[in-house]
Write a structure and sequence with these properties.
Structural class: alpha/beta
Strand order of the largest sheet: 11-10-9-12-8-1-6-7-13
Distance between the termini: 59 Å
CATH architecture: 3-Layer(aba) Sandwich
CATH topology: Rossmann fold
Number of helices: 6
Largest sheet: 9 strands, mixed
Order of helices and strands: EEEEEHEHEHEHEEEEHEH
Strand content: 25-35%
Number of strands: 13
Number of domains: 1
Length: 248
């Protein structure tokens, strides 16, 4: 079984985010980038399939040379080879097209992507990728068992869980539950040294088509000031809740 894990290069949630060019461009200066958490859950699950079922695991991302450290981290964790599609990920459809072209060229049985990235939270790429490839598709996936071509998947739905049976080839949109945070792997020195010897293929983009463009970014509004009320002053508290917070 050949597995491809799609990796997004996203800002660490502790990074301070800024925009340039009249708030039309994201400013990467001073920002720490990490593997998208939903993708990292998928990568860890893929490593389980490698160790338990002898699967081969490749990783891929769309981006310029600045994204290579996260691919090297994935290789250090245990992926066998990496692919970098040399293009800026301008929108979800563009990314899905590039990933689909790679899958058609190389051939994979299982595509594991995060259900969404934590930067844009679009949640579009896995579904579009499945459509372009005509693969089966399960999103919000929290468990995955594979026996030959037969697959049992559990996905999270409103108010509960849904168990599905499907077959390879398959695209999943994974999330926490595929593995837990305690299962995530930190590269050790041996893995880091071995990653230097693993192949990192650089692929040219197959298209320049963009269906959407960013017009403007904005930050969330600043939180209002805090009014402290003495615990014994119930009249003032009720007045503020009624007239300012408008929750009474």
């Amino acid at each position: 079984m050949k597995i491809l894990v799609c990796i997004s290069n996203v800002p660490d949630t502790t990074s301070k985010i800024n925009f340039t060019e009249n708030n039309t461009k994201f400013d990467p200066a001073g920002v720490q980038f990490v593997i998208n958490p939903n993708d990292e859950f998928g990568l860890t699950r893929a490593m389980w399939f490698k160790e338990k079922q002898g699967a081969s695991v490749s990783v891929v991302t769309v981006g310029n040379a600045s994204v290579e450290p996260i691919l090297r981290k994935a290789l250090a964790i245990g992926a066998d080879e990496g692919y970098r599609i040399d293009a800026l990920p301008t929108d979800g459809f563009f990314v899905a097209q590039e990933l689909a072209a790679l899958v058609k060229e190389v051939g994979f049985d299982l595509i594991i992507a995060g259900r969404e990235s934590i930067d844009y939270n679009g949640g579009m790429v896995p579904g579009m990728l499945a459509h372009l490839l005509d693969f089966n598709y399960v999103t919000n996936c929290i468990d995955l068992k594979i026996e030959g071509q037969d697959i049992t998947a559990i996905r999270e739905i409103d108010g509960g869980k849904e168990t599905l049976s499907t077959q390879l080839p398959l695209v999943i949109g994974g999330q926490k539950g595929l593995v837990e945070e305690s299962d995530l792997r930190i590269p050790n020195m041996r893995g880091i040294m071995m990653a230097r010897q693993k192949q990192l293929h650089i692929k040219a983009a197959t298209t320049t088509e963009n269906l959407t463009n960013d017009k403007q970014f904005s930050k969330p509004e600043l939180k209002g000031t805090i009014t402290m009320v003495d615990a014994s002053d119930l009249d003032t508290l009720i007045s503020l809740l009624h007239n300012e917070a408008k929750v009474l």
